[in-house]
Amino acid sequence: MLVIDNLHAETAGKAILKGLSLTVKAGEIHAIMGPNGAGKSTLAYTLGGRPGYEVTGGTATLAGADLLAMAPHERAAAGLFLGFQYPVEIPGVSNLQFLRTALNAQRRARGEKDLSGAEFMKIARAQATELGLDQEMLKRPVNVGFSGGEKKRNEMVQMGIIDPKFAILDETDSGLDIDALRTVGHGINTIMRRPDKAVLLITHYQRLLDYVKPDVVHVLAAGRIVRSGGPELALELEREGYAQVAA
Ligand code: ADP
Ligand code: MG
Ligand code: MG
C-alpha cells in the first residue's frame, strides 16, 4: 500500500532523510522507533507534503499513486491521514463544522457528492459513541480547552469520520496517561485494523504497542531504516537502548 524507495529529504537546507526505504502492505501496522532527531517527524511531514520539507531524491507511492507529486489536500483525498503529538486548536470553528468540511472536501476530490447534514451527523455521533467522546464536545471549538486525553479522543474521532486508507501517527502517544493510551489503542484497532488499510505508528516507547500489536517494527536512525523485525524488536529496544540495537 505504501512503498517508499530511497527517499531523501531536507528541511532548512539540512539533509535529514538519507535513503529511506520502507514497504507497508494493506492490513499491516508498522511501528517506527528511533532516537530523537533521527528524522521520524521529518518522514511524517514529508509524506504529508508539509511546506518546508523538500524531497531531493527517491519515490513514495500510496496504492500505486505518486504521493510526492500531489498537493497536501490531494494526499488526504487519496486516503492519507496524519496524526500528531500536539493536535492543533482552532478557536471559532466547531468540531462538527471542521469535520464536515474536511470530509466533504475529500469526497469532492474523489468525485463523490457531499453528505447531507443528517448523514454527516449520523457518522459523527456513531464515531463519538464508539470512542467515548462526549457528544457535547463535537459542538465545541476544535480542541480549545480540551485536556490532553480529550484531544486524543477527538483525534481518533476525526480519524474515524475521515476513514482514511493509511494513517501516519507521529508520537500520538507522547505524554498520555494509561486511559488516553487505551483510547488511542482502541481507536487505531477499531478504525484502522482492517484488511484494506494500514498504519505507520511512530513512537518512542514500547507501551503503546501493548495496545496496538505491530506486524513489523523498524528502527530509524540518522535518516534511514537501520533494522526491522517483529514486535519483539520493540521490547529489545526498550531493554537495550537505540545505540546498542541500531549499531
Ligand atoms: P525525530 O522526529 O526523529 O525526533 P525530526 O524529524 O524531528 O526527528 O528531526 C530530524 C532532524 O532535523 C533533527 O536534527 C532536527 O533538529 C532537524 N530539523 C527538523 N525540523 C527542522 C527545521 N524546521 N529546521 C531545522 N532543522 C530541523
Ligand atoms: Mg523528536
Ligand atoms: Mg519527532
UniProtKB/TrEMBL annotation:
Nucleotide-binding recorded as keyword: yes
UniProt xrefs under CDD domains: ABC_FeS_Assembly (cd03217)
The entry's keywords: ATP-binding, Nucleotide-binding
Keyword Lyase tagged: no
Pfam families recorded: ABC_tran
Matches recorded under InterPro entries: ABC_transporter-like_ATP-bd, FeS-cluster_ATPase_SufC, P-loop_NTPase
SUPFAM superfamilies per the UniProt record, alphabetical: P-loop containing nucleoside triphosphate hydrolases
Domain ABC transporter: 2-247
Similarity remark: Belongs to the ABC transporter superfamily. Ycf16 family.
UniProt xrefs under PANTHER family: ABC TRANSPORTER I FAMILY MEMBER 6, CHLOROPLASTIC
Protein name per Swiss-Prot or TrEMBL: Fe-S cluster assembly ATPase SufC
Organism of derivation: Sphingomonas naphthae
This protein's encoding gene: sufC
